[in-house]
Design a protein that fits this description.
Elements lengths: L5 H5 L2 E9 L5 H12 L11 E8 L4 E8 L3 H14 L15 E10 L3 H18 L5 E4 L8 H7 L9 H14 L28 E5 L3 E7 L6 H14 L6 E7 L5 E2 L3 H16 L5
Parallel strand pairs: 4-6, 5-6, 7-8
Antiparallel strand pairs: 1-3, 1-4, 2-3, 7-9
Pfam families: FTCD_N
InterPro entries: Formiminotransferase_N, Formiminotransferase_N_sf, FormiminoTrfase_cat_dom_sf, FTCD
GO molecular function: folic acid binding; transferase activity
Length: 286
């Protein structure tokens, strides 16, 4: 159970789930996904989360959806199930590495929410998706889940190897999933039994990585082909210094053609959720 009641939310307590979907080029499909996200079903015990932000990147062929709420697992899992049913990973092409239809879902505590509660949301989400799609390999990471690092999971699954299509990725994953089966996702609140790797298959959706970590603020900076490595290094270092107060970690990507972009800050996400609480339940923020 989340530590964020409505009154606590008004004072700055919420959870964030960022869902990364391997589709960012087809406007009609992106619109469908956005509609799924905005109306993702929840439960009586876990009210619907707010779709606070989304960003479609046609070059990467990837779209991120930001869910914020006192509970986010139910809405995020409902959305992911809809995305898995809608998208065809075998034909996916993009410049950004990906391991699946829904490549990555990251949970983070906002404001006064705790890391333990965020991990519980992630575990609940993973269990819900596994119940709906039991053959989908789900890899959990983060200190409160499995203790694994996302980069290590990705490295073991060939994330950084060049691929041409989703079909090629799935073909490579067949052996790698057997060699590197997922660990059970665990927290103090939820203990999942080990998953038999023989029952798992990267067909037809690849794999899904799920984690719980402090908020990571993402920046994409526009660079020119003639920019030196030193210039790019100086730019990224300055961004990290300037944004240190906005998030626990900062990820900077150098892009050649696209305009500057950053995901929303923790303060902006909390403010959006507080405004929703005010509209829906009349909770005052002061």
């Amino acid at each position: 159970m989340s530590s964020c009641s409505n009154s606590m939310t008004a004072r700055g307590c919420a959870h964030l789930a960022i869902v990364y979907v391997s589709e960012g080029r087809c406007p009609s499909i992106i619109s469908e996904l956005a509609a799924f996200a905005a109306t993702a079903t929840a439960t009586e015990a876990a009210p619907r989360a707010l779709l606070a932000h989304s960003f479609a990147d046609p070059t990467y062929n990837r779209t991120s959806f930001y869910f914020v709420g006192s509970h986010v697992a139910a809405s995020a899992s409902s959305f992911v199930k809809a995305a898995l049913a809608r998208l065809e990973f075998s034909t996916h092409r993009g410049t950004h590495p990906t391991l699946g239809t829904v490549d990555h879902v990251c949970f983070s505590p906002l404001g006064t929410a705790t890391a333990l509660d965020s991990a519980s949301e992630a575990s609940t989400f993973a269990s819900s998706v596994h119940s709906a799609v039991p053959t989908l390999p789900i890899y959990a990471y983060g200190p409160r889940l499995t203790g694994l690092c996302l980069k290590d999971i990705r490295k073991s699954l060939g994330y950084f190897a060049p691929t041409t299509t989703g079909a090629a990725t799935m073909g490579r994953l067949h052996a790698l999933v057997k060699e590197n089966p997922p660990s059970a996702w665990t927290t103090q609140h939820v203990n999942s039994k080990g998953i038999d790797p023989e029952l798992l298959s990267p067909e037809p959706h690849g794999v899904l990585c799920v984690g719980s970590v402090p908020l990571v603020l993402n920046y994409n900076l526009r660079c020119h082909p003639q920019d030196s490595k030193l210039t790019v290094a100086k730019l990224t270092r300055q961004v990290r210094l300037l944004s240190a107060a906005e998030a626990a970690a900062v990820e900077v990507g150098a892009r050649i053609t696209d305009a500057y972009f950053t995901g929303p800050t923790e303060a902006a996400l909390l403010e959006a959720w507080r405004a929703t609480i005010v509209l829906e339940s009349g909770v005052k923020t002061s």
